[in-house]
Amino acid sequence: MSKRIDAGPPGDREARRLRSEPVREQDYARHDRMAYILGALLIVFGLFTSAVAYTMVRSHTYNPVIGIVNYFVPAPDSTFGKERIFVLLTGLDYDYNNLDEPTSKDSRTDKIEVYAIDFPTKVVKSIAVPRDMDAIVAGHEDKINDAYHYGGIKNTDAVVGAFLGMPKTESGSYFDRYLTFRINTAKDLINAIGGVDVPVTETLNYDDTWGHLHIHFKPGLTHMDGDMAVSYMRFRHDACSDPCRIKRQQAVERITMEKLKSDKFNDLTHIAQLIDVLHRDVDTNFTSDEMKSVAWAFRDMNLADVYQTQVPYLADKELNCCGDVLVADDAAKAKMVADFIGPYVAFTPPPSADAIAAVKPSELRVDVRNGSGVPGLGAKLAEVLRKDGYVINSVGNADNFDYDTTQIRATAKTPLAGERVRSDIHLAQALVTPVPDSTAAATALASGKATAIADVTVVVGRDYLNVPAEAASPK
Questions:
Q1: E strand or H helix at 157, and its extent?
Q2: What single string gives the DSSP state of each residue in 285-311?
Q3: d(CA 135, CA 142)
Q4: Which one of 28, 373, 405, 463 is most buried, by most CB atoms within 10 A?
């Protein structure tokens, strides 16, 4: 990228002269200094090793790599000086100017969500606030998303915090940290992890040529790149408008977290790469060290400990300033915030092996879809499950062949059905995701291959190629 001219350092002639002369006393002195330096380095290395060992013993961590990282990346409670932080997350809307360039001038917040991150329990809770919620902004009634237009993130903090009834922090704000997503944040993040697989539950069609927004989705499991996922999350032209859009946003957020966890993006190298994406696309008052501290501490969190809600509303009304607004259910909102700021308890541990083994394969209908791009791999997995006693409902191809990770989507009809299938195909990294019965029905209808609604749908990814031959062969 750049050009550089290398030249010898000053004093080259003197150095050559010294090398040509016999060894003298200064040479012995130089060797002595090197010995001292090497000794000092060994002492420093010994102190470092001792410190890492101490950290490993204190945290009951015996993996040396983990111990080293724990030494260099302090725990978040010590980093922030408290056991829980509250974070305001906003996403800016944007328009296109006369040159057809995206612009966020005079932006409002298309997305408003607040997070509580509890360090001792590793529980995360969020409350989404619909952008059209009625609130007091700049001294008058307005849509709450207009707060950013009147005073940026500082005013948004004040308006959203007051609207929710949050307690103020020591600094006088309502939230400890903020994250403001610019235009390409979600797209870049989803592209960085190779896209996400989203169960679409209804037909979505909308075109806005000026806004460069073209949304066309049919029911079924759909692999989405960043552009597709953003379009899916922006759709609001259905029965409940913004509240339904928030549900789609939260579903994609959870799927993204699941993929980050299952695809091993939770090591320090990938954490640093993802933080680089955030630095490009996000305005925040988190420091890099704070981000690494939180990301590393929560790398193995239980996704059952992520709770997502949104402020409910009772009615809507017209305002002269801005048209239709939503009127919040204040009683329900107060109860929601009380839970948000109250004591936290971690979810129960993952199910035991005995509980998973108790699920009977003969009572489960399974659809198998080959998403690997490898001919016959779906039929091979289906035969393994059939030999294990499962009822194979149908076998066919997935919506595309780009699946790296096998997806196991289970309805709520039989608890732990997805975990039982994952155990029997010997693929620990397969992603198990609960799917509403309505989604399973829509997927079966769209596929045209299933004879009945499946309890479990397995989308076979390329990772199934790595299953040992003896485990992947029918019994």
A1: helix 147-164
A2: S--HHHHHHHHHHTTT--GGGEEEEE-
A3: 6
A4: 405
Inter-residue contact 357 to 185 (CB < 8 Å): no
Answer whether 393's CB lies under 8 Å from 451's CB.
Answer: yes
Encoding tokens for residue 373? 């791009």
CA separation for the pair 96, 128 (Å, rounded)? 27
Please give the structure tokens belonging to residue 92.
């800016």
- 76-341: CATH topology is Aminopeptidase (3.40.630)
Please count the other Cβ atoms lying within 10 Å of the Cβ belonging to residue 29. 10
Separation between Cα atoms, residue 113 and residue 133, nearest integer Å: 13
The pLDDT mean for the chain works out to: 77
- The CA distance from 291 to 289, in Å, is 5
404 with 465: CB under 8 angstroms? Answer: no
Pairing of strands 123-128, 306-310: parallel
Q: What is the per-residue pLDDT for 361? A: 95
Residue 335 burial by Cβ neighbours in a 10 Å radius (0-12, 13-18, 19+): exposed
Contacts of residue 45, defined as CB under 8 A and 6 or more positions apart, other chains included, come to none
Measure the CA angle with vertex 373, ends 367 and 376; round to 5°. Answer: 60
How high is the pLDDT of residue 305?
A: 84
Taking Cα atoms as reference points, which of 196, 195, 215 lies closest to residue 205?
Answer: 215
Q: Hey, which residues does 368 pair with through a beta bridge?
A: 395, 458
Please tell me the total number of residues recorded for the chain in this structure: 475
pLDDT digits (tens, 9 = 90+) for 317-353: 999 888 899 999 999 999 999 999 999 988 766 778 8
pTM confidence score: 0.56
At 344, list the tokens.
Answer: 């936290």
Residue 400 pLDDT more than 80?
yes
148 with 156: CB under 8 angstroms?
Answer: yes
Identify the band that residue 435 occupies on the pLDDT scale cut at 50, 70 and 90: confident
**Secondary structure letter of residue 426 according to DSSP:** T
Q: Read off the pLDDT of residues 282-310 as tens digits, 9 standing for 90 and up.
A: 888 988 788 878 877 887 677 778 888 99
Sheet architecture: strand order including 109-118:
282-284, 177-181, 84-92, 109-118, 123-128, 306-310
Residue 449's identity, in one-letter code, is K
Q: Are strands 431-434 and 407-410 parallel, antiparallel or unpaired?
A: parallel
